[in-house]
Amino acid sequence: MQALYAQLLVGLINGSFYALLSLGLAVIFGMLNIINFAHGALYMMGAFVAYFLLNLGGINYWWALIIAPVVVGVFGMILERTMLQWLAGLDHLYGLLLTFGIALIVQGVFQNYFGSSGLPYSIPDQLKGGVNLGFMFLPIYRGWVVIFSLVVCLATWFLIEKTQLGAYLRAATENPTLVRAFGINVPRMITLTYGLGVGLAALAGVLSAPINQVRPLMGADLIIVVFAVVVIGGMGSIMGSIITGFALGVIEGLTKYFYPEASNTVVFVLMVVVLLVKPTGLTGRAA
Amino acid sequence: MAEAKLAEKPVAATGAEVLTVKDLQAWYGESHILHGINFNVKAGEVVTLLGRNGAGKTTTLKSIMGVIGKRSGSIRFDNKEIIRTTSDKIARLGIAFCPEERGIFSSLDVRENLLLPPVVRPGGLPLDQIFTLFPNLRERLTSQGTKLSGGEQQMLAIARILRTGARFLMLDEPTEGLAPVIIQQIGHTIARLKSQGFTILLVEQNFRFASTVADRYYIVEHGKVIDGFANSELSANMDKLHTYLGV
């Protein structure tokens, strides 16, 4: 049983990253109509910014949780202003190819300087150690990642579904021209949305640094699964991408326990099934 | 050219010119839609653009609102040239637009739809006054915007721009596809707004409806304004009008 709980925890942690990343992808897709293939590279950048902050500036994990998303968010906004904005109105394929190219360049640059092996990033002192829950041993950092991710996801959901700013965002996703004609600076909102989406990716990167080490290809490995998560969940709903993210992490974890051979493919098998049965995804709306 | 003079023709003047459109041309991609539109609207007036389908009435409103990509000529609002201004800034000058397709957002509930357009200046209608005009909306605040009936959606589309403080309203075919009772209610609303000092630029196919609210008319054909007259000159112009509109 211990092993089952351990795998469930691993699943929840992976699910946290899936949720944070697919949430950002969903928000970006909604507003910019861009399938952001650079998401994994930006997640990796988040982890590297945390690494640089600690090793070059002596700035700790807690600050990195704030600074890294801001730095990467600004980098994302520059990408949006200088490149992505010109793709508005074009086929999805253009955005996909452009962001894929950006991902390759960013990852290539980091690989050039840091190789492919991982750089260590240690767990902050406050979150070291673990607690015995009776039925299992819970490393505090891992529990923190799950809970903090959940809080951030729910806060993002609240921002988008329950606030005036979120109403602008949802409305602009439907009809940007009309929202702009009401007096809202939609292009600026689009830039900020991209910044928010990639900021979430960078935040996931910081959270992941002490668990998975800091590697130039950490995002490339993850993003393929995340895209499968997005396909399964559907692009339509914010809550859908959060729930699907966590659920698929758990399903992966359970598969690791019951049939480890399939653990790396179970998400893709599910993706195929969902695409065959409900092509818009579990929570997605028909286009 | 005859139509160039129309803009200066002083008919039923009720105040200073708030909107002056001169030689407005507009394009959708490669297709040239407006070929030189001239007209004006004075403060406190209800002016109606009449014309057949595809004449360029909606495009004229959209050009004024700044949502048409390519346009030339001159649009002056409150003595400011806005032909190069982006639509968000135009809205902030106090022009509000109610599009033909109504533009109710399905991912927003009625309350969110109603509160969506930001207040651009003081003096907008407070919510309780809006609910007096459109009592149905108060009952439906938590419904999804697009779950409303067509009439209610039209009311919502008008109601939400009354809050913003914009005093110049552009309504694109507000009666299209609606039941006579609701058309009447919208007519009363327009009359009430006029009495409160709003200036309204209306596009209508429903000429009988327009005649109940308009001070002046302009006829749009093939992307140009070809005629214009005041409501008082209506009966004298009936024959011409039938020819223009082909009814």
Which percent bin holds the helix content of chain B?
25-40%
The poorly predicted ranges of chain B are: 1-13
- Supply the CATH class of chain B: Alpha Beta
* CATH overall fold name of chain A: ABC transporter involved in vitamin B12 uptake, BtuC
Strand neighbour order, sheet with most strands of chain B? 6-7-8-3-9-10
Discrete helix count of chain A: 11
Could you explain how this protein is built, in words?
The complex is a heterodimer of chains A (about 290) and B (about 250). Chain A has about 290 residues and is mainly α. Chain A has a single domain, classed as ABC transporter involved in vitamin B12 uptake, BtuC (Orthogonal Bundle), CATH 1.10.3470. Chain A contains eleven helices and two strands, in the order H-H-H-H-E-E-H-H-H-H-H-H-H. In chain A, strand 1 and strand 2 form a beta hairpin. In chain A, helix 2 crosses helix 8. Chain A is globular and about 60 Å long. The relative contact order of chain A is 0.21. The model of chain A has no long low-confidence stretch (mean pLDDT about 95). With about 250 residues, chain B is an alpha/beta fold. Chain B has one domain: P-loop containing nucleotide triphosphate hydrolases (Rossmann fold, 3-Layer(aba) Sandwich), CATH 3.40.50.300. Chain B has a six-stranded mixed β-sheet with strand order 6-7-8-3-9-10, sandwiched between helices. The N terminus of chain B is likely disordered. At the A-B interface, helix 6 and helix 7 of A face helix 3 of B. Chain A: Keywords: Amino-acid transport, Cell membrane, Membrane, Transmembrane, Transmembrane helix, Transport. Chain A: It is a multi-pass membrane protein. Chain A: Pfam families: BPD_transp_2. Chain A: InterPro entries: ABC_transp_permease, BCAA_transport_permease. Chain A: Belongs to the binding-protein-dependent transport system permease family. LivHM subfamily. Chain B: One of its GO terms (biological process) is L-amino acid transport.
